[in-house]
Predict the 3D structure of the following.
Amino acid sequence: GAVVSQHPSWVICKSGTSVKIECRSLDFQATTMFWYRQFPKQSLMLMATSNEGSKATYEQGVEKDKFLINHASLTLSTLTVTSAHPEDSSFYICSARDNPMRVGLAAYEQYFGPGTRLTVT
Amino acid sequence: EDQVTQSPEALRLQEGESSSLNCSYTVSGLRGLFWYRQDPGKGPEFLFTLYSAGEEKEKERLKATLTKKESFLHITAPKPEDSATYLCAVQARSIRDTGRRALTFGSGTRLQVQP
């Protein structure tokens, strides 16, 4: 259980175009999903928290108009990188948290997707 | 501000050579400390959650322990397949973070086990 998928696993796009990344919880409903980015040999940096049915909460320094997040259902969150530039090239990883009312303490655990490698040329 | 520091940054072991990875943390009320394993080009894989000082958890060759200031990930008789980056993260109990439950990650320890 607690499987999270991401699509695509890698994508190459031209500068100025937009890219959408999907994050799905396959065997549980996730009221909250998180989006991280990771640069080579660095740790994960939280970009935003995605809450089902409401606006995402962005970390300081993350442009909400550039990184659009939609959490339309309990199993799907999307991250759209708009007008991508080479500096947006990175490894984007999502995570999901199970419904706390269902699993108690285990609700604090986050399960991560396999990541999406974005390269902007 | 919550902080997580992992040491060493990199560790090279011979197969069968046991060792420990350290995770020191400062957090305004710990709700949970998490250990993940990350292979190159992949997302983190959940290993353990520790909630209170004195707690220990084991899984195969790995054992995680927790004190009020740090956590250790002990690796007993490692094998080459244990080579990966091990990430430590904390979740705060602060009121400010209520509802978000975001994790603060350390920079990780890159473990290489040679046959």
Chain B has a mean pLDDT of 92. The longest strand of chain B covers residues 30-38. Residues 78 and 97 of chain B are 37 Å apart (CA to CA).
